[in-house]
């Protein structure tokens, strides 16, 4: 079959080639025969033969040749099939995008996250979101509560996941509790306090500490640990919200910190950190969601909220099972 000129072939393909021709070619490739393709497509063999002749005429090339195992693609046919699959994939993606736009499940979801939510809760919720086929981009921004609240009010965040401090109604914020989170005092597994069966409060005043910075909801309970027991705050300490920094200071530099239990559990179970045997009398702080009251969440953000709720329930159940 003589090859047509590029312009003639392009004009013919645009005007005459249909998706049914591409699906028919795929069926012949999979079945290695006209009869097998007809059975797959639930049409007659003459219809398959006619469709193949049309496709080859439109493209100006022969796509198949008969071999010992039935019909086999020619060199040009293999190139056509490769492009055909790319075309069909693009059409599938267009269809998926239309579905997402029609349902509102599109666009970027931006989450402000505090330390307590970063190691487990947010990743688990994103995994659930993907498992449910919601393939929207999710941007996670870490920061202090004050900074995240400012971004939420400015419309730069869809929601905040973390501690739930008291808010006034005039702040136009809504909150939802996902659970209660206790604070535990932790040190590296090799720290002298980690090897004790009992740790006294006055022992803490002699340790090097990593404190939550001002503005963090966890700071007040940690500071109360010292004031309620008449202890002086250690003169040398580090303030940070970065768990990577805290973790390195605990494991490698012999410091002590008071952190949300769920933040440290993986490192505790892996043997890197130890929860010190010390009564922490302060009440657990609420963990949950904070959103703008006057801006309804997008459908995609609402789906992420649902996944955060489910992930929080599963995480709480898992922590309860691991407790002695």
UniProtKB/TrEMBL annotation:
Gene from which the chain derives: gbpR_2
Record carries keyword Transcription: yes
Under Gene Ontology molecular function, one entry of this record is: DNA binding
Q: What is this protein called?
A: HTH-type transcriptional regulator GbpR
Indicate yes or no for the key word Transmembrane. Answer: no
List GO terms (cellular component aspect). cytosol
Task: Give the taxonomic lineage as stored in the record.
Answer: Bacteria, Pseudomonadati, Pseudomonadota, Alphaproteobacteria, Hyphomicrobiales
- PANTHER family (UniProt xref): HTH-TYPE TRANSCRIPTIONAL REGULATOR YBHD, NITROGEN ASSIMILATION TRANSCRIPTIONAL ACTIVATOR-RELATED
Mind telling me which Pfam families this protein's record contains?
HTH_1, LysR_substrate
Q: What does the sequence similarity comment in the record state about its family? A: Belongs to the LysR transcriptional regulatory family.
């Amino acid at each position: 079959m003589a090859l047509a000129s590029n312009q003639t072939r392009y004009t013919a393909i645009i005007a005459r080639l249909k998706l049914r021709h591409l699906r028919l070619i795929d069926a012949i490739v999979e079945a290695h025969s006209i009869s097998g393709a007809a059975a797959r497509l639930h049409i007659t063999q003459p219809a398959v033969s006619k469709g193949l002749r049309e496709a080859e005429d439109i493209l100006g090339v022969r796509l198949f040749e008969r071999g010992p195992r039935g019909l086999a693609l020619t060199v040009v046919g293999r190139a056509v099939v490769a492009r055909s699959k790319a075309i069909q994939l693009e059409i599938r993606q267009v269809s998926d995008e239309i579905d997402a736009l029609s349902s509102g499940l599109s666009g970027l979801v931006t989450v402000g996250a505090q330390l307590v939510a970063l190691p487990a809760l947010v990743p688990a919720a994103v995994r659930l979101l993907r498992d449910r086929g919601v393939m929207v981009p999710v941007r996670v921004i870490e920061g202090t509560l004050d900074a995240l609240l400012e971004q939420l009010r400015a419309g730069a965040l869809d929601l905040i996941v973390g501690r739930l401090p008291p808010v006034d109604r005039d702040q136009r914020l809504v909150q939802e509790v996902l659970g209660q989170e206790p604070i535990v005092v932790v040190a590296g597994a090799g720290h002298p306090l980690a090897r004790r069966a009992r740790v006294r409060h006055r022992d803490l005043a002699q340790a090097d500490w990593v404190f939550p910075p001002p503005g963090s909801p966890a700071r007040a309970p940690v500071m109360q640990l010292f004031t309620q027991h008449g202890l002086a705050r250690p003169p040398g300490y580090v303030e940070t919200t970065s768990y990577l920094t805290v973790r390195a200071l605990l494991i490698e530099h012999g410091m002590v910190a008071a952190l949300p239990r769920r933040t440290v559990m993986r490192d505790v179970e892996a043997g890197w950190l130890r929860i010190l045997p010390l009564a922490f009398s302060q009440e657990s702080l609420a963990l949950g969601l904070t959103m703008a009251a006057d801006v309804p969440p997008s459908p995609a953000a609402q789906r992420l909220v649902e996944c955060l709720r489910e992930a929080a329930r599963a995480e709480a159940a898992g922590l309860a099972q691991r407790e002695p």
